[in-house]
Amino acid sequence: MSEQNIAPDAAFMAAEVHRPDAVPVGTPLTSLAEKRTEAGLRLLNNRLPDDFPHQVDRGDAGDALTQLALGEAIRRTVSNQRGSTIREALLLGADWDQVAAALDTTVLAAADDLRVWAEGQRTLYHRLLAEDPANRIGLDDAAYAAMMGAVDAALEQVGARDTYGPQAPRLRAAVAAAPMVDTVGALRALLEQLPDEMPLFLDDHHRALPGEPDQVHTVHPSLVGTVSGLGTPAESKEPGLMLTQVYVPFPAEEEEQAAVAARDDLPAYGELARAAYYLERGELRPGLKDVTEVLEELAHLVGEVAAGYVARGSDAESTLRVETERITHTAARVGKLADEVEAAE
Q1: Residue 330 in domain
Q2: Model pLDDT for residues 219-277, shown as the tens digit of each residue
Q3: What is the C-alpha separation between 289 and 279, in angstroms, rounded?
Q4: Is 134 domain-assigned?
Q5: Residue 2 pLDDT
Q6: Residue 166 banded pLDDT, cuts 50, 70, 90
Q7: 99 and 80 in a common domain
Q8: Angle (CA) 138 98 85, round 5°
Q9: In terms of domains, do 293 and 335 share one?
Q10: Which domain holds residue 80?
């Protein structure tokens, strides 16, 4: 059978895919999952003993690369479909609380996902319309306005639950419209929409998407509640502006980057704060791995940096070396526990 006669799905299933961008546009998720599963089964066969009595296909490095590449391709596909699926859920009768629950996020974050997607689709529509007057891809002005109406409804719903007063929906809308602020001009444009007396805060930690290998930083603005006149009859709650440095995927579409930047569940970028994030949620394995890295860094600081500033052969140097060994041994034990803790849970 010639290659021209092979159905597209069959050709894809037979091809080597070691990069996510090698997946043909429009390939169904079912095909991605099936091909990834086949590679995974071959890798699982590697765990069988050498004298296994039946003939099996064992995996190789290519299968491992296929699993990685297709896993990333699936992640990108699902992420790109997020906004359109939110729209479909709302059109079919779901409410914002249900949408947020399905995404395990907040109503505000889900609404911003829809906003970012809708703006991208409106831009796509007008760009393609300029090339082809018959274009029907993307969102025209009427469809875009409908989506912004749904976003406004979500903002009003969140504002109604706040104690910030009647200005809350407007302030939330202004901040949600700028999920990423990468220039002085963009920050200035946002600040011009906010009250001069609004408190300003910097997040204590940088945030990042765990497991994302290539990232670039952006600044994400968000509203936070602040209390003035604490413990007095004039005590009140008001909104403040929080600026957070977030690491977002790169390269990636701006919609995908904005969706990551706007997530309110991202752990801290640094190992110590990230360890606390995981451990406080009962996620022992990643939390203990971060603790291991923190201990290893402490061992370096005590045994190399601090020890470099005391006299050689002194009691202080000897004490620092002993403590370094203790910290190193602790790091090794915690690291070993991190690899075993899943089976103990």
Answers
A1: yes
A2: 999 887 776 555 555 555 678 888 988 888 888 778 878 888 887 777 777 788 778 87
A3: 10
A4: yes
A5: 42
A6: low
A7: no
A8: 20
A9: yes
A10: 3-88
Q: Do 230 and 289 belong to one domain? A: no
Provide the whole-model pTM. Answer: 0.44
| Residue that the structure tokens 């790169």 belong to | 250
- Among residues 269, 302, 336, which one ends one of the domains? 269
Same domain, 201 and 139: no
Of residues 241, 199, 196, the one with CA closest to residue 223? 241
Cα-based distances in Å from 297 to 217, 332, 337 = 24, 12, 18
- In whole angstroms, give the CA distance from residue 261 to residue 249: 9
Q: Which of 236, 269, 302 is the last residue of a domain?
A: 269
Q: Which two tokens stand for residue 199?
A: 């408190």
pLDDT tens-digit readout, 290-299? 899 889 989 9
